[in-house]
Write a structure and sequence with these properties.
This protein is an alpha/beta fold. It has helices at 3-18, 22-25, 35-41, 53-61, 79-91, 95-110, 118-125, 146-149, 172-190, and strands spanning 28-30, 46-51, 67-73, 129-134, 157-162. Helix 4 runs parallel beside helix 7 (118-125) and helix 5 runs antiparallel to helix 6 (95-110). The longest helix is centred in the last third of the chain and has 19 residues, at 172-190. The radius of gyration is 18 Å and the shape is globular. The relative contact order is 0.15.
């Protein structure tokens, strides 16, 4: 079903076979729903990258051996907590009646790890990570962001707050790209 991904994996294998030094100076950033599978299949070091729910997923991938680094943009820390917060905002006290159904929905969306903490997983991995949070994120409440949940002593993690940046702000790419490029350069040089 993912023929293009199979071609990419094959092409990377051929490149690494012809140019073994690529393992020391090249990193592949993987994002999207197939990130875990791609991390296992690629012959190069992999940095997991994600935005919002994808940022949570990227942090969770930090536990995988093949993932050498993580980039999270406007990510939340715990899916269940965020979903319950949204329900309370829109349904008020009725949200508690909906709570069992919301937990089921989260389990369907996020699997068994729906209440897993991205910050705890990321810190436990000890892998290099860049966590970027928009200071004007209107979708993820400040107390539920991965950025806000990170302890100060989380090894290998650089946390960056971009003031005035919203959750899906059109300037997200422009403002986040310089620190992301710097981070990726560092990952490629250290793998």
């Amino acid at each position: 079903p993912y023929k293009g991904m199979s071609y990419l994996v094959e092409a990377v294998e051929k490149l690494v076979a012809d140019h073994p030094q690529m393992k020391d100076n090249t990193t592949v950033a993987v994002l999207g729903s197939g990130g875990e599978d791609m991390a296992q299949r690629l012959a190069l070091p992999v940095v997991a990258l994600g935005h919002s729910a994808g940022g949570w997923a990227a942090a969770m991938l930090s536990a995988e051996d093949r993932v050498t680094g993580v980039i999270c943009l406007n990510a939340f820390d715990r899916p269940v907590s965020l979903m319950l917060s949204w329900a309370q905002r829109y349904a008020g006290p009725l949200s508690w009646l909906e709570s069992p159904f919301l937990r089921l929905w989260e389990a369907i969306l996020f699997g068994g790890g729906a209440d897993a903490s991205a910050s705890e997983t990321l810190c436990a991995s000890g892998k290099p990570a860049l966590v970027i949070q928009g200071g004007a994120d209107e979708r993820v409440p400040a107390g539920m962001t991965l950025y806000g949940a990170l302890p100060e002593d989380c090894p290998g993690v650089t946390a960056l707050l971009l003031e005035g940046l919203g959750h899906s702000d059109p300037s997200l790419a422009d403002r986040a790209l310089p620190p992301v490029a710097l981070f990726l350069d560092g990952c490629a040089g250290s793998s």
